[in-house]
Design a protein that fits this description.
By secondary structure, the chain is an alpha+beta fold. 61% of the residues lie in helices and 14% in strands. It starts with a helix and ends with a helix.
Amino acid sequence: MGNKVLYKALLILAIVGISVYFAFPLDKRINLGLDLKGGMHLLLKVDTSNLPEKDKADAADRALEVIRNRIDAFGVREPSIVKQGEDEIVVQLPGVTDRARAIDLIGKTALLEFKLVVNDPEKLKAALAGTVPEGTQLVYSQEENEPLLLQSQAVLTGNGLANASVRFDSSQFNEPVVTLQFNPEGSKQFAEVTANNIGSRLAIVLDGKVQSAPRIKEAIPSGEAIITGRFTIEQAQDLSLILRVGALPAPMTIEEERTIGPLLGQDSINQGVRASLIGGILVFVFMAVYYLFAGVVADIALFLNLLMILGGLGLLPHIFPGVSATLTLPGIAGMILSLGMAVDANVLINERIREELKLGRPFRTAVSNGYSRAFSAIFDSNFTTLIAAFLLFQFGTGPIRGFAVTLTIGLIASMFTAIVVTRTIFEILIGLGWVKSLPMLSLLKETHFDFIGKRKIFYAISIIVVGAGLIFAAQKGKAIYGIDFTGGQSQEYSFRDPVKIDALREALKKIGLADASIQQFKDKPNVVLIRTSEKSTMDLSAKLKEAFPDEDIQTLKIEHVGPVAGKHLQNKAILALIWSLVGILVYVSFRFKHFNFAIAGVIALIHDVLVAFGFLVITGRQIDLLSITAFLTIAGYSINDTIVIYDRVRENARLMRKMSLGELINLSVNQTMPRTLLTSGVTLLVVLAIFLYGGEVLSNFAFTLLVGFISGVYSTVFIASPLVLAWSKKKGNV
């Protein structure tokens, strides 16, 4: 064993050691996303429209600090609060599922004011009649709904507040009240106000609502006040908390919300892990059975590939401080694609070694040549997908960026394990004389089909399939899109027993939601999905429990997306997809020296996305952000498949100069057909396992991948390759 092999072995051990260190223990190194473990995701917009010009610049920064202090005091474990753009704040609260309380805590402006009540019955009477005197405002108390005429100018604000706490008032049947303690300046002002207005009422106003309006009996020099309001203990605690940390500089609106209940989150984890294990075992067993010892070596590479992805996620925060190592559903999509490409790389190498052995090459030479000849296809396909991943990260939103990060780590790991790790293992074993041959099963033989000659038939099939999908989409209109893109609210609840739709609709009608859409699942009759327009932000859980008191109702998922956020998400998704296609087009044009290769590959890629889109629409499944992630996964996988054939065309063109381009394409497609079917078949094992065992959350995603990956094999062989010839003839290159 030479020094070069020794150094490679030491490098591999070092990288494996680093991966293990940063990957384990998993629960400490890598966080599960909210879509897997439950919690809340909020996109908040700071409304600066009524702020003076001098206060608008830093309003979002000040709001962020106030929200951070509130959440820290609330006791949420590992929250994420980050500013996005100029006036948006993204808040993620793992494990928090009390939606109403969290929104009230985060979104309440908490502008505290003390205003004197105008003690003039005639002015109050005029105000009630519609003529509000200048310098006053008509409001109603929270407790008694009593009309009160207040002075518009506050005599004291929350700026003078030092502390707020909860105590129980014995005079009010031990109801919780919030006591306020002022700082020295605030105490002085409060003492003056109470001394100068004995006998008058002083209203305590929070966010424009009168909490209480006690009468001033005497001067209060202690600097203490009490807010009553028939609070629950939790309400009193939350109110005292937000008063302690201060008011927001401007009102907040919720542009986007996603709440995943603990039941659904844990279910996602259990089903996702089970599906991944089943799919992984199927891949490992197939590789070991089909390629025998070479398959075992490939399995080692696949295992290390997964380990390096986890290690890379754990290492990420140390390289980029502030970036959390979070595994989400789109991240799992990135892992699936990188696993598929890792399988592809190992299949390419093994098939190349098989070809070299058939040509009678000595064993050591055959192994060396196999790696050399497979390298360009592996590099091109992985690098093309890396370009797409980079552009997705630049132009995508949160879920798409999570997919891009995991995919990038996975692609780097797959290239390293396939090219470096497996070759080093072979070099060590061959050098020691332990391996002298590589027997492999050969169930798939090289085909001899005239793909070019039959191209018009397949063009017609593709046009029919894609056209049907687009026609269905046009007929259904906006109904094909989920709330991610159209805006609205979706709430999913689990009942102990199956609920009757008519009874549910009647309950919704009573609370003003007669136009709500209700969906019940055939395989889960006790689960209902309720969709309402973007104007509705009502949490239905309490109302449903009132309407069905004998039921054990669990909140599985609540999603709310405002129309502005929906349009933003749609635009970002389209941009991410377009720029990734442009990146692929530019690189393939440069690498293969012909634009016709690139344009044919991108057309095939778009074909696969449209086929998957069409099948989603035809089967009544909605297009959401997870669907977009699946489309991007399909695009990456499709171009990988196509580039392998392109690489073989380029190689054959150098060896067989007298062949026409049509003959070269036919030969290359037939030569790579076993590899195409093997790689796609093995990857589909993982996707099929996720579709069958991954549960409801992953069902749409896995279905899209199944359709797209099958279409990818079809388009690579029957669309992309013939299009190269057609485009070349059009340009006069043949």
